[in-house]
Fold this sequence. Notes:
By secondary structure, the protein is mainly alpha-helical. It has helices at about 10-25, 40-60, 65-95, 95-110, 115-120, 140-160, 165-185, 190-195, 195-210, 220-240, 255-265, 270-275, 280-285, 290-305, 310-340, 345-370, 380-385, 395, 430-435, 435-445, 470-485, 500-515, 535-540, 555-570, 580-585, 610-625, 625-630; strands at about 405, 425-430, 450-455, 490-495, 520-525, 575-580, 595, 595-600.
Amino acid sequence: MHRSLRYRAHIDGLRAIAVLGVVLFHFGAHWLPGGFIGVDVFFVISGFLIAKSLYADVDAGSFSILGFYERRMRRIAPAFFAVTAVTSLCAFLIFFPNPLMTYGRSLIWAVLAFGNVYFYLRTDYFGPSAEETPLLHYWSLGVEEQFYFLFPGLLLLIARFAPKARAKLVLGLLAASLIACEIVRPFNPAAAFYLLPFRAFELLIGAALALPGVRFPVSAKAGGAAMAAGLALILAGMLLITERAPFPGALALVPCLGAALAIWGGERVTSLPARLMGLPPLVFFGAISYSLYLVHWPIVVFARPLLPDLPAPAFLLGGVALSTLLGWLSWRFVEQPARQNTARFSRRWVFSGTAVGGALLIAFGTAASDTRGFPGRLSPEIQRVLTYTRYPFREVVRDGTCFINGNRPREAPAPECLPQTHPSLVLWGSSHVAQFIGALEPIGKAHGYAVGQMTGAACLPLVEAPSSPMCDKLNRFAFDWLLAHKPNILVIGGDTLVSEDHFRLLDAQLAQLHAAGIRVILLGPVPQFGRPAPEILAERMYRNEPSRLADDDLTEGTRRADRLMAAHFAGNPNVTFVSILNSMCPDGNCPMMVDGAPLQLDPSHFTREGVAYYGSRLGALIFGDTSAGAPAPPAAP
């Protein structure tokens, strides 16, 4: 017979800190840049509680596979299906066809407990952003469920054939997973983030803490000190770790060991920190933490298109409040009845309900995928405009040869990307400058220039500003190549640079490049929007709004970066600064569509029509052909 674990109030308090960190971070609490590590705290808690129950049942000879998965389903499935069904309805009502199609595919994988694998496979610089993916947070559920598909079987095998080797198995797997994560992370950070082999060590830290031979503090002083140290580690991680940190891997030990210390310190004795962790507000958030985690991210995703002008403080406070309300409703009316009323919700009901609920969600996901997002909801013209969200942008930037993507890593651009003769023009930087190649190459050749390209995904042209390993290698190669080969013209920029540190580093590079005799053209930011430009246009068409100009949809961040860059670089003799907004857009109001074709496929990247529009004007500014460079008003679609 299964032995239920005793209630631990301090663990509910720990859950509260974990979930509030995640929720605050996702709703834009910039003062908590490492709030996302709350997920790692959850992994340790889960590993400890589930492993402790498993060890007890296996040792007593009462472990039942059916019983174990019934408890897992009773705990996980009701809220999962309820929240996912409501999310699916919202996606159908709010999303245009392409994001709904993508949502349907993610839904299928998430229901099958492989959401993390799907999001890993979809990790792509050119893929949908996190803010367009309502089920992205389900990756952590996938990691947990895959772990619990495997871990009970391993324990049974060890109990049958090597009962004294359990601790060695747990510690050995823990060490292997951590080492593998640290090895893989620099080269494939998405795999290290999403996939079980590289995250298992976090659950195994909890499982190691639950081993029967582990001794816990027996004095309130020692237990309290351990809890305080653990909580300090977690809070310090949330305040100091950032998204740009090398995470997970060894750095994930900060929240994981913090969680382990907090659990360890409160397991046997009651101390002041334990009592504080058991205060009613923390216990409340700990109790609803699972439902709160489920509901919060869809709210983040759907609020952005519905309330694009919502001020950040209102988004933070309102989002947390609404998430808390919906999380409580899910906990009270979905989670609790299914867990507590075992007479009404029997084992057969749990298994059959899980099967039926999963089948219905998979059926919806399949329909959304196979129909490409139910496009019949919209007029043919709107459907045509929305097809640009699936534009083949890889071809625009010459991905895989002259544009280096993290999914297609190269040490340097292919040799054919580098000009071999003079005069020459070279593009260096991110996709925002790479996209100009389709216009500048023919224009340059018409003026007798060889044209080259050294560009990479999200790679600002800054040598001394650490970024990803891929960008660091590319930028070092590019800068050394430029100083050695001295092209006549170098084009960089297109990004929203606002950091004084970036300006300072760029000033130093510009001085070196100018001293080498290179004429440097620095572009201001390309037009950037809060969501894909075709979706903005489609929404205007649906509402019969006539404007095809950027208007208020151009982000304020773009305008601000353009002003700051102009003020800083306009008087620099080492560079020619070109404001795209002011030199290529009539009255500073950039066109979004010309002759019925959207100029951008997403918030910031050009279609070929966009390359032609902006690239021809840039070419005219570089080579002095003023007849080609005057901005023309956009034609009506």
